[in-house]
Amino acid sequence: MSFDAFNIVRGLHILAVIAWMAGMLFLPRLFAYDAEQQGKAEPLKSEMQSLLRVWQGRLLKIIINPAMTAAWVFGVWMILIHVYGYGEGWAFLARPWMATKLLAVVALSGWHGFLSGELRKIQAGTSIRTSRFWRMTNEIPFLIAIVAVLSVTTEWTFG
């Protein structure tokens, strides 16, 4: 049995994406719980918000950020294997399914950036987002992931 570098890198990429997605699906839920503390009585409000904000920061710094970095590194590595290892050239990136997947990755990265910015606002006490907002938008990364996964697994083309 020989080791196939592409499949090892692909497996590591999938694991990184799973961790990244898990974090991006959980963080808005923590934001919703934080927003729900408005209007609650002290000292419970302060204690809960303090605890939630520690969890939010740790989730972003320990899981979400490293997982996104790993997903990007392994993703770029797979592209380089296709371009140079398999000799497909850079035109590989223009295939409809790959272009769609790359757009989905950019969208997920944008959502990640939005969540990071919102965490800073929450921690500073300047966020205007409500619990309802976070519950309504919680599934955005999952919907984007559906597009990415189906693009890669079907490798669809026009015609």
From TrEMBL:
Instruction: Report the catalytic activity.
Output: protoporphyrinogen IX + 3 A = protoporphyrin IX + 3 AH2
Q: What is its EC number?
A: 1.3.99.-
Instruction: Please cite one Gene Ontology biological process associated with this protein.
Output: protoporphyrinogen IX biosynthetic process
One function term, GO molecular function aspect: metal ion binding
Which residues of this UniProt protein bind heme?
Answer: H13, K101
Give UniProt keywords alphabetically.
Answer: Cell membrane, Heme, Iron, Membrane, Metal-binding, Oxidoreductase, Transmembrane, Transmembrane helix
State the membrane topology: Multi-pass membrane protein
Question: How is the cofactor bound, as the UniProt entry phrases it?
Answer: Binds 1 heme b (iron(II)-protoporphyrin IX) group per subunit.
Main localization, broad class: membrane
Give the pathway. Porphyrin-containing compound metabolism; protoporphyrin-IX biosynthesis; protoporphyrin-IX from protoporphyrinogen-IX: step 1/1
Chain ranges passing through the membrane: 12-32, 62-85, 97-119, 140-158
Could you tell me where this protein is found in the cell?
Answer: Cell membrane
**Gene Ontology cellular component list:** plasma membrane
Cofactor annotation: heme b
Q: Which InterPro entries match?
A: HemJ-like
Checking PANTHER family in the record gives:
PROTOPORPHYRINOGEN IX OXIDASE, UPF0093 MEMBRANE PROTEIN SLR1790
**Which HAMAP family does the record associate with it?**
HemJ (MF_02239)
Query: Subunit info?
Result: Homodimer.
Name the family: Belongs to the HemJ family.
- Role: Catalyzes the oxidation of protoporphyrinogen IX to protoporphyrin IX.
Q: What is this protein called?
A: Protoporphyrinogen IX oxidase
> What organism is recorded for this protein?
Brevundimonas alba
